[in-house]
Amino acid sequence: MELKEGLRKWRKVLFVIAVMILLSPFFAWAAEVVGYAEPLESAAEHLGAMEHEYAIISGLIPDYTIPGANPYASAIVAGIVGCLIVLGLGLIMGKVLQRK
């Protein structure tokens, strides 16, 4: 009973997250078409900082892609992973703040 009430409460939020995940390949394609570049990377290139770059770790999903996978499928996976990470962190923070 409680699970149904909880899902009903979060239905709109879960729907928006699902729509965003499903639309993520479209945004990946559109960014490629218009030549979008990350603003921070563009600023670093403009200032010449990219010449000195090095990565300590490559990241969980570097450049929102999974090496060797379809770029659009990678965008969906990146969306799902990103949503789950943010949702998990939000739930953990909510529990910690609720205790205080």
3D architecture notes:
This protein is mainly α and 100 residues long. The protein has a domain at 1-33 and 70-100. It is built from three helices and no strands. It has helices at 2-34, 39-47, 71-99. Helix 1 (2-34) crosses helix 3. The longest helix is centred in the N-terminal third of the chain and has 33 residues, at 2-34.
Sheet-strand content, in percent, reads under 5%
H and E order: HHH
Shape: extended
**Unreliable stretches:** none
Largest sheet: none
- Mean pLDDT equals 83
Helix content: over 70%
Annotation field: number of helices: 3
The overall strand count is 0
End-to-end Cα distance, whole Å, is 28 Å
Which structural class is indicated by helix and strand composition? mainly alpha
Topology overview:
Layout: H1 2-34, H2 39-47, H3 71-99
Helix pairs in contact: 1-3
